[in-house]
Amino acid sequence: MTNRCLYSALVLIALTGCASDPAPTEQLRLSEQAMSQAKAVGASEQVAELTLAENKLVQAQAAMAQEAYKDARMFAEQAELDARLAEARVLTEKSQAQLSELHNRINRLRKQLGELQ
Amino acid sequence: MSAKTQAITSVMLALLLSGCASSQPNSGEALEAARSRFQAVREDSNVLRSAPKDVIRAGESLARADRLSSYWGSADDVRHYAYLSQRYSDIAEQHSDLNLNQERAVKLELEVQRLQLALREAKLLSVQEHGSWLEEQMLSLATSESERGLVMTLGDVLFDAGQADLQASANRTVLKLVHFLQLNPRRVVRIEGYTDNRGDKQVNLELSRARAQTVADMLVDLGIDAKRIEVQGHGENFPVKENASSKGRAQNRRVEIVFSDEQGRLGAAR
């Protein structure tokens, strides 16, 4: 009898712990959106986070297909933030490049001024 | 207690444990890493200013991971929320870097503009310096006659005998003259032709005028506004030397360019 109780308790825990999540369709949509946004600003495979996001999105979609919704949600949430980080990194790198271009221009101008004076 | 039930129970337990506490890094470590990461961005005023939402979400995810860490069997969730918290912190930091870079870029753009302006001014100054050097050269060619102002003389050798055409050797002088007038846009000139006293007075007058006109035409061709140029022929009047010797006569055959002052005031005509 105690065994049966323990057994059903365990089943209950397993069910509630791992299979009570609804299908995370909205989260997947968000993740895909973040992904395409990152690609739109020019993130490529060279940005490590983009590859991470891509892999997790694939895993999320696979988990969705198997109705493992909690896994799907977790992968999708991580994929979204990985993609957003990839996007942010690309934008920061671009602004960095812009800064060094400006520094170059300033140096060139200073040099020209120095030659004139 | 049947062996079968026992077996099932242990399989379930094993499943539970493996399912939720797999061989990933310790959830406590992940939590601590996320916590110190969050601490760092929260104390950075630039990050707070640039990406307050991401900092808040980093904090929320961290709190969630914190809460879950007190429940048994939720290591995966702890790791998950710790991961999300770290990502939010990273994103916040990137946004802050981006923001700072953009602010710096605005300042540098201003610096570029300032330098471009300074460069333009410096170039202008050097042109003016070159201009004043040229002016000195021009003025050294000219002689100052108090009542007529500055006068530059183009000698007889620049014209073919009895002709009004200017020889190619005059080009350098004329080009200098054009440049000088371009750099001194307010100055005007009067071009005066003279001959010696040999030959017909009227012919000499016409020749002197034609020679002066040739110089004026050349200046106009080279871009000087015709309104800035007066032309006069004086024929054999106003000789600079005696017409008795051939040397003296040669010096009397000339074209003089009278410059106005910098305000464009010319001395009175003869």
Outline of the structure:
The complex is a heterodimer of chains A (117) and B (270). By secondary structure, chain A is mainly α.
Topology (elements, then pairings):
The complex is a heterodimer of chains A (117) and B (270).
Chain A: H1 2-19, H2 25-40, H3 48-65, H4 69-116
Chain B: H1 3-20, H2 27-42, H3 45-50, H4 52-68, H5 75-141, E1 143-145, E2 149-155, H6 171-183, E3 189-194, H7 201-221, E4 229-233, H8 246-252, E5 254-259
Parallel strand pairs in B: 3-4
Antiparallel strand pairs in B: 1-2, 2-5, 3-5
Helix pairs in contact in B: 2-4, 2-5, 4-5, 5-6
Describe this structure in words.
The complex is a heterodimer of chains A (117) and B (270). Chain A has 117 residues and is mainly alpha-helical. Chain A is 85% helix and 0% strand. Chain A is built from four helices and no strands. The N and C termini of chain A lie far apart (99 Å). Chain B is built from eight helices and five strands. Chain B folds into two domains: 102 residues, no CATH class; 118 residues, 60s Ribosomal Protein L30, Chain: A (2-Layer Sandwich). The relative contact order of chain B is 0.09. At the A-B interface, α1 and α4 of A face α1 and α5 of B.
